Amino acid sequence: MSAESAARDGSDGAAEKEDGRRARGERRRAAIIAATLRVVERDGVGGVTHRAVASEAGIPASSAVYYFATIDDLLVAALSEAADAYVRHAREAVEGGKDPLEAVCESVVHAGTGVGRKRVLAEYELTLLAVRRPSLRPIARRWMDMVTEIASGYSDDPVAVRTAVAAADGLCVEALLDDREVDPEEVGAVLRHALRID
Q1: What pTM did the predictor assign?
Q2: Are 1-69 and 71-198 in the same CATH fold?
Q3: How far apart are CA 54 and CA 35, in angstroms?
Q4: Helices (DSSP H) in 44-179: which residue ranges?
Q5: Chain center to CA of 183
């Protein structure tokens, strides 16, 4: 083997090691975010500490601090993941041929079902926290921005669009407060009424 090919093989090996470390780091980071959401689901935002999250993730507390230096960093990452999941779900549904308004209805219905209810409750706790922590506000608005975008495809009346966004949000909160499953037909009827769709 020439010196040049040996050097090339060595640099390829270093790149593979770096890629392996990066992939492990990304998996660890994702595990910490998922653990943070589970802690919020179980104990509320007040229960989020580096130690609690690390314990939930099954890792040393120092690892949680390494990836997320502050509790705010943990909360921002958790809310980002939750908000992005809703946006991804809606976009995938629409790209798969589903009516966009039906995708919003599914998200609202999700708020009143088993595991979905716990996650939505955690998201609302994080969203309310955004009132006091400005760093969370742009992330907390992602759900409303997505519903606004979808509703705007059905109406050019800004009041009707805002009514639909408020209705979708209100139905989610109602499902949480009443601890009941949401009727998809009711959600669809409310949103169509708000947007004046026959």
Answers
A1: 0.74
A2: yes
A3: 8
A4: 50-57, 61-67, 71-95, 100-110, 114-129, 137-140, 142-152, 158-178
A5: 23
- Output the six-digit token pair for 118: 């716990």
Give the whole-angstrom CA distance, residue 73 versus residue 147: 26
| Surface-to-core class of residue 57, CB atoms within 10 Å of its CB (0-12 exposed, 13-18 middle, 19+ buried) | buried
- Tokens 């994080």 locate to 126
Contacts of 174 (CB under 8 A, 6+ apart): none
CATH architecture, domain 1-69: Orthogonal Bundle (1.10)
* pLDDT tens for the 198 residues of the chain, in order: 555 554 555 556 666 666 777 888 889 999 999 999 999 989 989 999 999 999 999 999 899 999 999 998 998 898 888 888 878 888 888 888 888 888 888 888 877 776 677 888 888 888 888 888 887 888 888 888 989 999 999 999 999 999 999 999 998 888 888 877 788 899 999 999 999 997
CA dihedral for 41, 101, 96, 80, sign (positive or negative):
negative
* Per-residue burial over 66-100, b = 16 or more CB atoms within 10 Å of its CB, e = otherwise: ebbeeeeebbbbbbbbbbeebeeebeebbeeeeeb
DSSP for 64-75 reads HHHH-SSHHHHH
| The two structure tokens encoding residue 127 | 């969203």
CATH classification code of 71-198: 1.10.357.10
Going from N- to C-terminal start, the domains of the chain cover: 1-69, 71-198
